[in-house]
């Protein structure tokens, strides 16, 4: 058994790694190593990361927009 790399709880395979091993001929350790997180944990993590990225991009766009206003204002004052 292996723990989820996201939440730290035990990952329970269904069918088990041993059953998968019998069906495919691959070692059970292959399946234990293959599944390193819960599907629900991964979805939550992706949602959080996407939200953080969107927030960061919005903030950068807002800062960029404000700096353009400052530049355009200072350029106008330089002309006078």
Structure explained in plain terms:
It is a single chain. The chain is mostly helical and 80 residues long. The chain has 2 domains: 1-37, no CATH class; 44-80. Helices cover 70% and strands 5% of the residues. Strands 1-2 form a two-stranded antiparallel ribbon. A hairpin with a 6-residue loop joins strand 1 and strand 2. Helix 1 (17-24) packs across helix 2 (28-34). The longest helix is centred in the C-terminal third of the chain and has 41 residues, at 39-79. It is rod-shaped. It starts with a strand and ends with a helix. The mean pLDDT is 88.
- Rounded to the nearest angstrom, the radius of gyration is 25 Å
Mean pLDDT across all residues, rounded?
A: 88
User: How many β-strand stretches?
Assistant: 2
Name the overall outline.
Answer: rod-shaped
- What is the number of helical segments per DSSP (H or I, 4+ residues)? 3
Helix percentage range = over 70%
What fraction strand? 5-15%
- Contiguous low-pLDDT stretches (5 residues minimum) are none
Task: Give the total of domains.
Answer: 2
- Spatial arrangement of strands, main beta sheet: 1-2
Could you state the order of secondary-structure elements as H and E? EEHHH
Distance N to C terminus: 74 Å
Q: Give the helix/strand class.
A: mainly alpha
Tell me the major beta sheet.
2 strands, antiparallel
């Amino acid at each position: 058994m292996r723990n989820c790399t996201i939440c730290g709880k035990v990952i329970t395979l269904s069918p088990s790694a041993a059953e998968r091993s019998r069906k495919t001929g691959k070692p059970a350790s292959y399946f234990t190593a293959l599944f390193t997180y819960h599907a629900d944990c991964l979805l939550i993590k992706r949602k959080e990361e996407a939200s953080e990225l969107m927030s960061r991009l919005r903030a950068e766009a807002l800062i960029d927009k404000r700096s353009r206003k400052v530049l355009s204002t200072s350029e106008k004052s330089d002309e006078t």
